[in-house]
Amino acid sequence: MSGLRCDVLTTNSAALDAIDRLFGSAINETLFHHPRFLSYHGADKFPDAQWRHYLFSWNGSPVAFLPGAVTNGGDPTFHSPLGSSHGGLVHEALSYAKLDECLNLWWEDIKGLGCTRAEIVLAPAPYWEEAAYSEAIEFKLNQLGFVLRQPELCLIVPIEADPDFPRHLVRASAWRNAKQALTRGVTVRHSAQFTADLERFYPILADNRKRFGATPTHSCTELLRIHDLAPEGMHLFLATADADALAGILAFQATPSVLNAFYPADSPRGRDLRAMDLLLVELYRWALEHSIRWVDLGPSSFRLMLNMTLTRFKESHGGQTFLRRRYVWNRSNEDRR
């Protein structure tokens, strides 16, 4: 008889000790998978959704975790993630047979719920422990009838010691801009007063997004809530001149080795002074000092619509291209197979 057990969790507060233990030994966990992070969402954020996480244990020890939720606004749909960047199965270094068994238990459950659609978004390859990288989950999803749909192109910077670090990461024009910012009085620091500095940075972020007809994914209140829940999981880098905040990068410590530069933003004066170029250079220095292997500059596409200007900017600052894969299953497609 199998020693595998599956517990279905319908809140973000259940089994946190067991999930913490698993995340301490998993090979592909991220901050964005953890229900403690997901709990920043207010109860009214997703009125048509019910959290539905799956905790898998082998002979009493947690070995895998699949975060998700079922929405019922139309056709019942399973999402992993909901309200986060990355989903999919977090797991220890398991055999394929055990991974297969975990996903079969989950699959039986969501089909029993009457789900007619499922979406799973997988983190790019650098989010894995390098020596343990595996595509077993993708093979299993394909077996179940999932198809790759509209992946997003992310640019991620490798952080490695080099005699010319960080100059070797950035193109000549970006390096000149960073030096220009320094000579014009711009300084960059890692915030030690998160709440106060976020209140200085957030208006810059909101105005910056307004230029593109958008709003930040998170409100200032939500970011403060996330910081309360995971204070070691957020870092704010602020560029100033003459005591004025010019630009910043709000980053999530997604894994011990990956820093996700989720919110870069600058003011008009910051753009004039080339503050963002200097911010990225100094962020790379900080990352190397803190044993960060990768800095994720985020997607440059929305589904398959690529922002070429943004892609070129990130490439000029060392970004390498990786896919954030989105796998989708529809029952109607299965019926036609």
Characteristic key phrases:
alpha+beta, 337 residues, single chain, twelve-stranded mixed β-sheet, Aminopeptidase, 2 domains, globular, 33% helix, four-stranded antiparallel β-sheet
Secondary-structure blueprint of this entry?
Layout: E1 4-9, H1 16-23, H2 35-38, E2 49-51, E3 53-58, E4 61-66, E5 69-71, E6 77-80, E7 90-91, H3 96-112, E8 117-122, H4 136-143, E9 147-148, E10 152-158, H5 172-183, E11 187-190, H6 194-210, H7 220-229, E12 234-241, E13 244-255, E14 258-266, H8 268-272, H9 275-289, E15 294-299, E16 301-302, E17 305-306, H10 308-316, E18 320-330, H11 331-335
Parallel strand pairs: 6-8, 14-15
Antiparallel strand pairs: 1-3, 2-5, 3-4, 4-7, 5-6, 8-18, 9-18, 10-15, 10-18, 11-12, 12-13, 13-14, 16-17
Helix pairs in contact: 5-9
What does this molecule look like?
It is built from eleven helices and 18 strands. By secondary structure, it is α+β, with helices and mostly antiparallel strands. The protein has two domains: 4-151 and 324-335, Gcn5-related N-acetyltransferase (GNAT) (Aminopeptidase); 160-292, Aminopeptidase (3-Layer(aba) Sandwich), CATH 3.40.630.30. Strands 2, 5, 6, 8, 9, 10, 11, 12, 13, 14, 15 and 18 form a twelve-stranded mixed beta sheet that branches. A four-stranded antiparallel beta sheet has the order 1-3-4-7, with helices on both faces. Helix 5 (172-183) packs across helix 9. The mean pLDDT is 96.
